[in-house]
Design brief:
Blueprint (H helix, E strand, L loop, with lengths): L3 E6 L16 E3 L3 E5 L6 H9 L5 E5 L1 H6 L2 E6 L5 H4 L18 H6 L3 H15 L3 E6 L7 H16 L3 E5 L3 H5 L2 E4 L4 E4 H9 L2
Parallel strand pairs: 3-7, 3-8, 5-6, 6-7
Antiparallel strand pairs: 1-2, 1-4, 8-9
Helix pairs in contact: 5-6
Length: about 200
């Protein structure tokens, strides 16, 4: 189900770092909207603006959203990862455990970065229904096997009425979908984008 039908950047909010974004750029939204491009082109900024329903964006919403609203799930692989929140999550120099919130240091100590990301990304998406899912680099730390699993859970969630906005560098995900290139300010197939950037 498409909850947000069209997105347009109408203002550049310098405080949010949106000066890298192109004013008046707009695109028709699909079930899976992949924001791609080089580092610093504005992918994460645009996702944060979308998550906050920023005045810098003009969103065309579907009738069911206007009538009933829609919930959203937002995940930033840098800010929401417990290893990033507390880089000393294992122990203090004297060997004492440091709590890091959900699960604590002990629960995460014996899990790899990828295992933590798997539980924080794949599990919620596999349960998501009728909502907008906003993900910033969900492939971070995932093995190639789990990147393909990510594609499967995203496609299954689309069938349950979810719409995705994803900033990504995940080659398999890009190759399988159309993308919104903030590097070229255009919508194109993943194959076209890969061809453009690989020929640089």
């Amino acid at each position: 189900m498409i909850h947000i039908q069209k997105l347009r950047i109408v203002a550049i909010d310098l405080d949010s770092g949106a000066k890298v974004l192109k004013k008046d750029f707009e695109f028709d939204c699909s079930h899976i909207n992949l924001l791609v491009g080089d580092q610093g082109c504005g992918k994460s900024t645009l996702l944060r603006m979308l998550q906050k329903n920023s005045k810098g964006l003009q969103l065309t919403l579907a009738d069911h959203v206007l009538k009933c609203g829609v919930s959203s799930y937002y995940f930033d692989s840098e800010k929401d990862n417990p290893r990033v929140k507390d880089p000393e999550m294992y122990t203090t120099p004297s060997g004492e455990d440091i709590g890091i919130g959900v699960g604590g240091a002990i629960g995460s100590r014996f899990r790899s970065h990828g295992e933590i990301m798997q539980s924080m990304i794949l599990t919620p998406i596999s349960k998501a229904k009728d909502c907008v899912v906003i993900l910033d680099e969900p492939e971070s730390g995932l093995s190639i096997t789990n990147q393909f699993k990510l594609i499967k859970v995203i496609n299954a969630a689309v069938k349950r009425g979810c719409q995705f906005f994803i900033a990504t560098h995940c080659y398999p995900l890009i190759e399988a979908n159309n993308v919104v290139s903030l590097e070229h300010w255009d919508v194109m197939t993943g194959g076209e984008f890969i061809k453009k950037v690989s020929s640089k």
